[in-house]
Amino acid sequence: MLADGRIVAVKKSKIVDESQVDEFINEVVILSQINHRNVVKLLGCCLETDVPLLVYEFVPNGALFQYIHDQTEEFPITWEMRLRIAIEISSALAYLHSAASIPIYHRDIKSANILLDDKYRAKVSDFGISRSMMIDQTHLTTQVRGTFGYLDPEYFRSSQFTEKSDVYSFGVILAELLTGQKPIRSTICEENKSLAAYFLCAMEEDGLFEVLDSRVLKEADKEEIIIVAKLAERCLNLSGRKRPTMREVATELIRIREHSIMPPNFEEIIDCEDDDTVGHNLESGSSSIGTGSFFNGATTFSIGANLLISKDHDKIEEVLPLTV
Fold first, then answer.
1. Is 172 helix (H, G, I), strand (E, B) or coil?
2. What is the pLDDT of residues 75-110, one digit of tens each?
3. Is 314 a catalytic residue?
4. In whole angstroms, what separates CA 238 from the centre of its chain?
5. Which long-range contacts (CB under 8 A, 24 or more apart) does 64-67 make?
6. Which UniProt keywords apply (predicted)?
7. pLDDT tens sequence across 254-296
């Protein structure tokens, strides 16, 4: 808690590692260019300590992953929630790809990186390996980074990451929301371990309704399910060129939701910026966030156990340090 009563979350590296420092600096650079209501807000940073510290708005309700895969009767994740969260994630990604001052590829989209605020609105987080792109740049060539189960197979083969690689990862989240299954499934059969492959096989064999989460099957309109499933199938296409853009995905999801609830104007959803900007200058792409202490010397704070980011055990670890 800060002196003014605000609750914040602090991200701190557990080890002193140069590549970790690079990721933290990269996250500061990236988030200083972003101001969207469905992207977690960076409030400050300190790069003068043994390990870097990043301070964010506190997002109290944990990650989407736990709500999909550890469902409870006390707080079930309804179809309406799933559809709304999918719209919020896709709108944030559409903003990053095509409405931010500089196009940004997230590169690690997964349900564990989607946080839920006090009203269970989605906040995209963890921009440590994200990259900003030149306007005329179509892809970046890097050593493969990301999380197994969400990695674009095309990127894995070629080391070329495009905006459609984020689209593929979002397609896996859509499959998670529809089926309630994890991106890497617990099964003996190797060919069915990948949720993406399992889902695509079900679609191809007209077995969609056999693999759906029971709550989705119970609550959702059959036509809505089919449209969302076909959209997920398009996002998971093995050819990146055949996948839709995130703007197209967001548009389609909003249209689906129009059957029951009239959403805000689409352009407002994609291009929205928070009114309470913190040290951002989006037109110039600059930020007032600097190195050193993020608060004045008199300020002290304590951190609760519920931090923004938990350690991922499924990350690909053998990577080159980022350059920013």
1. helix
2. 889 999 999 999 999 999 999 999 887 889 999 999
3. no
4. 21
5. 64/111, 64/112, 64/114, 64/115, 64/116, 64/122, 64/173, 65/110, 65/111, 65/112, 65/114, 67/116
6. Kinase, Transferase
7. 999 887 554 455 555 566 666 443 333 323 333 333 333 333 3
In 3D, which of 200, 253, 247 has the Cα closest to residue 225?
Answer: 253
Nearest to 20 by CA among 60, 62, 51, 63: 51
Which letter does DSSP use for residue 111 in this model? G
- Does residue 193 contact residue 187 with C-beta atoms inside 8 Å? yes
Percent of the chain that is helix, strand, coil (3-state, to 5): 40, 10, 50
What's the rounded Cα separation, in Å, for the pair 236 and 269? 24
Give the active site residue among 17, 50, 108, 126: 108
DSSP alpha helices (H): ranges in the chain? 18-31, 64-69, 79-98, 153-158, 163-179, 195-204, 208-211, 214-219, 222-235, 246-257, 266-271
Which of helix, strand or coil describes residue 35? coil
Note whether 274 and 41 are within 8 A (CB): yes
Is residue 141 very low, low, confident or very high in pLDDT (cuts 50, 70, 90)?
Answer: low
Beta strands 42-46 and 280-281, pairing class: unpaired
Q: How far is CA 127 from CA 47, 115, 181, 233, in A?
A: 17, 13, 25, 26
Q: What is the pLDDT, as a whole number, of residue 46?
A: 85
Of 68 and 32, which is predicted with more confidence? 68
Beta bridge mates, 104: 132
Task: Give the pTM.
Answer: 0.80
Kindly state the tokens that stand for 307.
């931090």
